[in-house]
Design a protein that fits this description.
The chain is α/β, with parallel strands linked by helices. Helices cover 41% and strands 15% of the residues. The strands form two sheets. Strands 3-2-1-4-5-6-7 form a seven-stranded parallel sheet, sandwiched between helices. Strands 10-11-9-8-12-13 form a six-stranded mixed sheet, with helices on both faces. Helix 4 (77-85) runs parallel beside helix 7. The model is unreliable at 411-425 (pLDDT under 50).
Length: 425
């Protein structure tokens, strides 16, 4: 069996999910297709992929699709379209399906999908690319062989809206994670009372942020972590995981150590499971992973517009009480309902917190208070927080879904056959 595995390049969320998919296909020849940070992440997990291609290299290999059984794609609409056009069955996975901004709603996309499914190759491409990237993200679900959405507040409502327009085959999934849940508690008190902290910032890079360009949140986190270690003798180790750290390093700070690293997936999951306190960017991937492992992460100020929306969506949960939103520190005003404009406003807010002493002190005090609150909780209260959030994350079993798809006989579809090789449910 030969499989194409592709994802969007921004952040580590999509490629982390793709790596989880790859782990469930150990007997297949797994061809990774992607760019930028996603490609770097995939290369750090060499047991998951047999071959690596950029998207441009895929475009230069027109016969590759004919030699593959199917493709599994995470949130990459343009690759999805081209593979479908080449006759490759595509199973599309998404963890942000309700986030995509649709200025005119779902109906125009449904109409476009019907036209695409009956159009010539050139006409279909013109119809598809007439829409914005957010609109194409959703349109790809309507033309994919089969599509799946990881659960989160608002996701069932978006799926229902698609169903009302005649595209009701999107399957609601639980957490897209291949890691087994822990056995027993991973919080073990040390005899000397010392404890450790994991800070996850993820891939960080996107359409507005590059390493050392607008990534103020990384410098802010490093500054805070060093100060906290210096002031907190019983915190003996802080590890910051981030895509900027191509080369890992560790230095002594106060009574402890500060480590910066770009962790492979298994290494990160091990760090997450063993950490006494977890601070995380407000992305959904680490949230799902932490909850799966029975961890209640303290959510850090948002890096971009989607993380802002995530914090808002979780504000009513018990985890909301452990979050530190950027608006708790600095005045942002009403963020525009636009990914780029909202992200630029957030970047400016993070820059101010890093550089203005009064704002940094406010951030420091808020985060220390959240950590103190968390460390005072007993295991039952931590579990209550986990259960509260988990109630919004349930769905069909991810592992069983991928294995079922891989085991099915898949006749080669003609140009665009949505619904081919469907699984029950």
């Amino acid at each position: 069996m030969r499989v194409i595995l592709s994802c969007e390049p921004n952040g580590f969320g999509p490629v982390s999910k793709l790596t989880a998919i790859a782990r469930l296909l150990p007997d297949a020849e797994r061809i990774f297709v992607g760019d930028a940070g996603a490609l770097e992440f995939a290369r750090r997990n060499p047991d998951c992929f047999e071959q690596y291609l950029t998207i441009a290299e895929l475009q230069q290999a027109p016969d590759l699709g004919a030699a593959c059984d199917f493709a599994m794609v995470v949130m990459e609409p343009d690759v999805t379209f081209e593979l479908l056009q080449a006759g490759v069955p595509v199973y599309l996975f998404d963890s942000l399906i309700e986030f995509w901004v649709l200025p005119n709603g779902v109906a125009p996309l449904a109409a476009a999908a019907r036209r695409i499914l009956n159009a010539s190759s050139d006409d279909a491409r013109a119809i598809f690319h007439a829409f914005s990237i957010h609109e194409r993200k959703l349109l790809a679900h309507m033309i994919a062989t089969r599509s799946f959405a990881q659960n989160f507040p608002g996701v069932p409502q978006r799926i229902e809206a698609m169903a009302q327009e005649g595209f009701g085959d999107v399957r609601l999934l639980g957490s897209i994670i291949d890691h087994p849940p822990p056995v027993g508690t991973s919080r073990r008190a040390q005899p000397d009372g010392s404890w450790s902290m994991l800070i996850n910032l993820g891939g960080v890079e996107n359409f507005a942020i590059r390493f050392h360009d607008n990534d103020y949140i990384i410098d802010l986190t490093e500054k805070w972590a060093a100060r906290f270690l210096q002031d907190t003798p019983d915190c003996r180790a802080i590890t910051i995981c981030c895509g900027r750290y191509r080369q890992a390093d560790t230095r002594a700070v106060g009574h402890g150590t500060l480590t910066r690293r770009f962790a492979a997936r298994d290494e990160f999951m091990d760090l997450l499971e063993r950490a006494d306190v977890v601070l995380s960017a407000a992305g959904r991937t680490t949230l799902h992973e932490a909850i799966h492992l029975g961890k209640a992460p303290i959510l850090l100020p948002e890096q971009h517009h989607n993380q802002y929306c995530n914090i808002i969506s979780l504000a009513h949960t018990r985890l909301g009480d452990l979050s530190v939103a950027l608006s708790d520190i600095v005045t942002l005003g009403d963020l525009p309902d636009d990914d780029l404009a909202g992200t630029l406003r957030i970047i400016e807010g993070a820059r101010r917190v890093l550089r203005e002493p009064t704002l940094f002190e406010r951030f420091d005090a808020l985060l220390r208070a959240r950590i103190a609150t968390f460390r005072a909780l007993d295991p039952a209260h931590v579990q209550a927080i986990v259960d509260d959030v988990a109630a919004y994350l349930g769905g069909a079993d991810f592992g069983a879904t991928v294995r079922t798809l891989a085991q099915q006989k898949k006749p080669r579809p003609s140009y665009f056959q949505p619904g081919a090789a469907l699984i029950d449910g």
